[in-house]
Write a structure and sequence with these properties.
Length: 374
């Protein structure tokens, strides 16, 4: 099989100073998220939120831990790599890492999912979508954007999905927690029908749910502060369990759910444990309302992105490899850039040519219905 460049299923941007100020509803322009300079560094300040976001947190690819810690104290927007916000400069960064195309997720937009004012959050996400359209349009065929929706209501979210499809976005970043009930409630069936009709995957990224906010990523409930990092993926696991056991996939068998940046090596045990739980619930191991084992739904309806999770490659026979999506997470601090190819040569060395093609390229093309990518 001919070797082709990888496609990153989860990459990001650094929202530039004008992202919200210039693209937001004029009603919110004076209080739109903006970059301010304090104590020798630039930070994104968000009206109504206590924690500001240092630029170094979302632009740390290719740095050692000590280098990142140093930049946290002094980084300004002028220090941010241009490829993080300029599509023309992005091409060179992608070429350096051997990347053919990228699926683009928000960065500051993840923090905004925790904003308590739903109208403000909604206005910010609509502004981001307008900016992202121009960003992806600057490098067509290589940058594919995911719109954001705040899910203020089912009807509003349906409008967001339809608008995103019209604008050429390939999927939707979802709020980890809805305002009304929870996502397994029948009231959301109309939204899931819309997502299926438009063939727009639901994309749940880490740090976008109440149980896994940016605040929680830095402060452990118990022990060492790194214990907080260990808990980030739990909110994603909750969402998978919610959709699976709540019968969402049973009612909407063609619905596509993406777990972004939560790794994948945990999935085999997670599926086993859910099936085991079902077996203790009923004699036949079938959860009422479901016609299959929980693991069967996960293998069919759930995709997972990961960067340097070598465990995922080692346990590939325990998963549906057609649902695995490799990513480089550029330009974040957890990124494999610019050494993705060296890492993949080591971690993916045991894969067959077909498996390697699928995980590094084919699966993301099929999932998001991408046009031919060189």
């Amino acid at each position: 099989m001919q070797t082709q460049r990888a496609i990153s299923a989860d990459s990001h941007i650094v929202e530039p100073p004008n992202c919200y100020v210039d693209f937001i509803d004029p009603k919110y322009r004076d209080i739109a998220p903006r970059i301010e300079h304090h104590d020798g560094r630039d930070r994104y300040v968000i009206e109504g939120m206590k924690r500001s976001v240092p630029l170094a947190f979302i632009d740390g690819a290719g740095m050692t831990p000590s280098e990142r810690q140093q930049t946290v104290r002094s980084k300004t927007f002028a220090d941010v790599r241009p490829g993080a916000y300029d599509p023309k400069a992005r091409a060179a960064d992608m070429d350096r890492d051997g990347i053919a195309a990228e699926i683009i997720y928000a960065s500051l937009g993840m923090v905004l999912y925790a904003h308590p004012d739903m109208a403000y959050r909604d206005a910010c996400m609509k502004a981001y979508n307008r900016w992202l359209e121009s960003f992806c349009g600057g490098l067509p065929g290589r940058l594919f954007g995911l719109a954001q929706t705040s899910v203020t209501s089912v009807d509003a979210a349906i409008d967001d999905f339809r608008r995103a499809k019209e604008k050429g976005f390939v999927g939707m970043m979802m709020a980890g927690d809805p305002v009304h009930e929870d996502y397994d409630h029948p009231d959301y069936d109309a939204l899931w029908e819309c997502a299926v009709d438009l063939d727009m995957p639901l994309c749940f990224h880490i740090l976008t749910a109440k149980r896994g906010t940016m605040e929680m990523a830095f402060k452990a409930e118990r022990g060492h502060h790194l214990n907080a990092f260990m808990g980030i993926i739990r909110a994603i696991q909750d969402i998978v369990g919610l959709f699976t056991l709540g019968g969402v996939f049973e009612r909407h068998p063609k619905l596509k759910l993406v777990c972004a940046e939560a790794d994948a090596g945990w999935l085999p045990h997670y599926m086993y444990r859910m099936d085991h739980a079902a077996s203790t619930f009923a004699d036949d191991g079938m959860v009422p309302g479901l016609n299959k084992l929980p693991s069967d739904y996960i293998k069919q309806n759930v995709w997972a992105t990961f960067q340097d999770d070598w465990v995922a490659f080692k346990t590939i026979d325990l998963m549906n490899h057609k649902r695995l999506l490799w990513a480089n997470d550029f330009p974040h601090s957890d990124s494999t850039w610019p050494k993705s190819q060296e890492l993949l040569a080591e971690h993916a060395g045991s894969l067959t040519a077909q498996q390697r093609h699928d995980i590094l390229r084919g699966n993301v093309i099929d999932l998001f219905n991408l046009p031919p990518v060189e």
